[in-house]
Design a protein that fits this description.
Blueprint lengths: L5 E2 L3 E2 L40 H8 L5 E2 L2 E2 L10 H19 L3 H12 L3 E8 L2 E8 L2 H20 L6 H13 L7 H15 L2
Antiparallel strand pairs: 1-2, 3-4, 5-6
């Protein structure tokens, strides 16, 4: 029965492969037609892992202006419009399919794997000084940061520019899919953090 369930009634989840063994349990590929579960897992621990990866991607697109502890760009216009954002994602998937001749769900999954950083910096205080130390990033956080970086990079590329969000997201996901830091800000950010962590090891 599940092979008949296709995302937006167009793209099948059959044969989608997560190559990174650490991320396999955290990238949920349960077949779904409309990626909106209405927060039914929200009260369970690690609820994000029970949510389809495309739905998590849509949820991240709700607040793409938020970075650190503040909104660098106001993304109030994006909030709560699930149907609008789902339409954007559908158009992005159409573009990805045209450009790669592959299932766009697989392209998104590979882009997330490539953009997921492996280690980052943690700062803590020892006496009067702040020490920065390299720490291994947990798999749940790796997926979260990859999704966040892809969404925020696309929003920065399109906010107040001639390029629209569909083109910006397509470019960003394709750049991450090809693991190309010159085309993807998410990959560039991942490499920058990993370089800093390596220096603090």
């Amino acid at each position: 029965m599940s092979e008949n369930i296709k995302l937006f009634n167009r793209w099948s989840f059959e044969g989608i492969e997560v190559r990174d063994p650490g991320l396999k349990p955290y990238i949920n590929l349960t077949p779904i037609v409309v990626p909106k579960t209405g927060g039914r897992h929200a009260k369970k621990q690690f609820h994000k892992s029970k949510m389809n990866i495309v739905e998590r991607f849509i949820n991240k697109l709700m607040v793409p202006g938020h970075r650190g502890k503040k909104h660098l760009i106001s993304s109030g216009r994006c909030v709560g419009k699930t149907f609008t954002i789902a339409k954007i994602v559908e158009k992005v998937f159409e573009n990805l399919e045209k450009k790669t001749k592959m299932n766009p769900i697989q392209v998104l999954v590979t882009a997330i794997e490539n953009a997921a950083l492996r280690e980052e910096l943690a700062a803590y205080q020892v006496g009067g000084i702040i020490v920065r130390k390299a720490v291994v990033t947990s798999p749940q956080r790796r997926v979260d940061l990859a999704l966040r970086n892809i969404c925020q990079a696309a929003y920065r590329k399109s906010f107040g520019k001639k390029i629209d969000i569909v083109q910006a997201l397509t470019q960003e996901i394709l750049g991450a899919f090809h693991n190309d830091p010159s085309r993807s800000e998410a990959i560039k950010e991942k490499e920058r953090i990993e370089r800093e962590a390596e220096g603090a090891r």
